[in-house]
Amino acid sequence: MADAEKTIEIEVLRYRPEQDREPVVQTYQVPFTDDTSVLQGLQYIKDYLDGTVSFRWSCRMAICGSCGMMIDGKPKLSCKTFLREYYPGKLRVEALSHFPIERDLVVGIEDFIGKLESIKPYIIPKQSRTLEQGEYLQTPAQRDQYEQYSSCINCLLCYAACPQYGLNPKFTGPGVLALLHRYNADSRDQGWEARQDVANADDGVWGCMLVGYCSEVCPKGVDPAHAINQNKVNSTLDYFGMLKFLLPKGAAK
Amino acid sequence: MKRANEPIFWSLCGAGGVLSALVGPILILLTGIVAPTGIGVPPEVMAYRRALAFAQSWCGKAVLLAVISLFLWHAMHRIYHSLHDLGIHAGAGAAAVCYGFALVATLATAYLLIVIGF
Amino acid sequence: MSARKPYVRSMDGWWRKNPYFTRYMVREASAVFLAVYAVILLIGVFRLSQGAAAYGAWLAALTNPLAIVFHGIALLAVAYHAYTWWKVMPKTMPMLHVGGRRIPEIALSAVGWAATLAASLVVYMLVRGVS
After folding, report:
1. What CATH number has the domain bearing residue A145?
2. pTM reported for the whole predicted model
3. Residue C21 is nearest to which of A144, A163, A233, comparing CB atoms?
4. Is residue A248 over pLDDT 50?
C-alpha cells in the first residue's frame, strides 16, 4: 500500500461581504499526494471541510485562465501549482492582488473586461477581402512577430504582478496591452492606427515602468513587458510624426 | 483618451540611459576613485590646465554637456516616477521640480562652458 | 440592493513584500546616485570657470574619504544600472531573425554589455593618453 497520507496546512484568506468587515484567514488541513494541485486542495476543502469557500476554476489544465490566485504572495494558476512544493511548510492562498475582492478568492474583473473591449481584440483587416481572394499568406517571420502574444489566456496574473496597476487602476495594464500588440503586429491587421488612442495615452503604454514582473509570472510565456515597451518606441515615433515613414501602410513594427 | 507627452521625456531618459550605461561606471571610477587616489592613472589627468583645455575644446564641451545634461534628464525622469512608486502623489508640481532641475542644470552647464571660453 | 461589497486592499509597503519588487526599487534608486554624480561634475565645471584655486578646492574635496566612499557606492549603483539597462533593452525591439531563427534576448543584451566594456576601455585609454 502507498505511504501514509500526508497532510498540509492551507491558509485561505476569506471574505464574505455579508458578514466580514475585512478579510480574515482561515486554516484547513488538507490531505495530498505528489500530484495534488492547489486547486484540488481547494476543491477538497470545499467538498469535505467547508462548502462556503468560493473560488473560480474550470479547465484545471492551465488554458482557461480562471483559477489565478496569490499563492504565498506570488500570482499563480492554482491548477498548475502543486501542494508538494510547499510541504512540510504551509501555504497561504489569497485572491489576486490589485483587484477588489468580491468573495474569498473571487475578484472583480469588470475593469479588465472593459479595457479588453477598448482595444478591439480582433483582426481589423487592412482592406476588405473576398472569399475568392483566398486565405492570407504569412511567412514564419511575420507570424513570429505576434504569435507568443496570441497565447494570452486572460488569466490576470500579470495584473496581479504589476505594481503600477496596483498603484493606478486606470493603467490599461500588461495583458490588454500585450493583446493590443498581438493585433497590431499581425500582418493581416490594419496596425497601429486602429488602437493608437489607447496605446498613446498616459495610462496606455506610458503607465508601464518596466518592472518586468508581469513577464515573470505569465503562465503562457506571453512576455507582456516586451509588447508594451516595443510600443513605447512606436508611440514615440508616432508622437514625432515619424511612424508613418517607417511603417509601410498598415504594417506594424 | 488624451495623448501623453511622455515621449519627450522618455526619449531624453533613453538617451541618458544609454550614455550612462556605456560610460557612467568608468567615469565614476576614474573621476571619483582612480584620479583622486592616484591609483591607476597619474592624478595630473584631472589637473586644472588639462581640465581647462578640455572644457575649452569643442569636443570637451560636447562631452561635458552631454554627460551632465543627459545623466540628469535620465535620473530625474526615473526619480519622478519613483515618487509615484513610493506613494507620493505630487503630480504636476513634482514634475516641474524634477524636469525643471534637469533643465536648469542643462542651461547652467551650457552657460558655464561658454564662460570658460574657447 | 446588491449584496456586493468589494474589498480593496492597501498597496502600503508593496515593494518590501516581494524580492522582485525590492530589486526593482534598487534599480530605480541607482538614478539618485547618477543624479548626485552629475551634480558633482556640474560643480566641477562651475569651479573650473572660477579659476585654478577654486578648481583645486573641488579636486581636493574629491580626495576626502567620504567622497571616495560615495563614489564607490555610486560606481556599484551605476554599474547595476548599466547591467539592468542592457538586460531590458531587447524588450524595446521587435522580434529579430537571422537565418529564420529568432535572435534570443540575451544575445542582444550581450552586445550592450560588450559595448559598455568597449566604451569603458576607450574612455580609460583616452584619459591615460592625456600625458
Report:
1. 1.10.1060.10
2. 0.92
3. A163
4. yes
